[in-house]
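Throughout our pipeline, every protein is held as a single compact record rather than as scattered files. Nothing more is needed to write down the fold, since each code stands for a local backbone conformation. For reference, a complete record is included directly beneath this paragraph.
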Amino acid sequence: MPRILWADDEIDLLKPHVLFLEAKGYAVDTVSNGTDAVDRASDGGYDVVFLDEQMPGLGGLDALQAIKSHRPETPVVMITKSEEEHIMEDAIGRQIADYLIKPVNPKQILLSVKKILDGAQIRGEAVQRDYLQGFGELSGRIGGDLDVTEWTEVYEKLVRHDLDLEGADEGVRQILDDQYREANDRFAGFVEDRYPKWIREAIAGEKPRRDRPLLSHEILPSRVFPHLGDVGGKPERPVVFLLVDCMRYDQWLLFEKHLHGLYDIDRGWHFGLLPTATPFSRNAIFGGLLPIDLAKRFQSYTVDERQDESSLNAHEAEYLEDLLKRKHRGDIRFRYDKLVSQSDGLGFADRVADYLQHDLSAVVVNFVDILAHSRSDTKILKEIAPDVPAYRALTEAWFGHSWLLAALQELARHDCTVVISTDHGAVRALHPAKVIGDRETSTSLRYKHGRNLKVDADDAIFVKEPEEYGLPRLGINENYIFAKGDSYFVYPTNYNRYVNQYRDTFQHGGVTMEECLLPVVTLRPKG
């Protein structure tokens, strides 16, 4: 039975309130002064303490401070006749759990107790109930004929449910996981059917619309360059473009919580180019071109994974400069940086003012991608983050204490525009898919290009004509395959070894909502 301590110099007048709480199943002890309240509360055993602010002798605020010094974990509710703001602020500063203005009725007291003791459980039960009640409607939408805008709405709902249901009953979590899986199965079929049409329309210069998403190579011209003002004019304010490599939408929502007091936030979407991997989608962002056109325009462009990984994105500054010139913005003073190490990030946070001397700063943040791959390789990280909610929490814990948040806090003090996006997300790979190819086939686990590739159609999208997907043809009879759902590709040679090595790792390059449906967010400092 939960125990309540109530201290008030007029406690006898509150007998009806005490009886009401006892009838609701609470044990209530009463005292008439602050000194007794401190003595009783310090002995422990109370789940909630109610304190009258104005008591003879030791007043409520002093009693609150004394109780917190002995029992900082005990929730204390301040009850007062005073509506003076400074008293409220003083009480809040001393970590009260609630603040009530007299006269109070019994139901107000009960509500405060329930909010403190049962709030988390009540909220958890409510979100589970809401999800289960809406399950049929959401499943109906997933099974319907959706356009890409409707798919982003479905994904938004699934992500919100996923965040709300953390810690929910295992059975409810399993229902959500199954619904996610069903949605990704349908989504892969949708993309296979529509993606070539989107590419044709993008090549023809058609603008994004409800049934044709903004694609990776269109982000800078559509979402960043307009903030630079008219061609030939001077930008009103500097623009900072932050590309957080391998950031999923659910991760962004957790990052965003730390920014609400700093920025007005305008959230949008783009669709990551296929395959959802750095050599394709990220280079396309900075070049403003589809991979097939990057390969034609730049001899430096390569997607050959046998080269050093850093060489796959070593020319992004060159591509960005070329894009600015093609868009008649060669006059824009820009800076490009890729932040890989902690010292790189701290340097950025310390020199925000220097970056704002440029019209446009483009900054690649590699930490989230590094963390995803490190979890695959490091046993202790896999133990810390054994599933998607834990992995998400790990990235939020990093962000909340990171140089990136410090940099965004500093940027919020200046008149600037910040645009944040990503090149691709990631998905937890759980289902091995046997693939056959020759020794020249690429090594990625969620996509491959090579000659005469063979894989089960249930596990992958097979691209026979790369040009239809805006991709360069890398040789005679070369094809691409993109993994569906939570599949990952494994060769028959040493099959079991590699199945076990790569199962339950975060990978990208395939076709899931987590990898393809990506945030592009505009931040304007408040005030």
Observations:
- The chain has a mean pLDDT of 93.
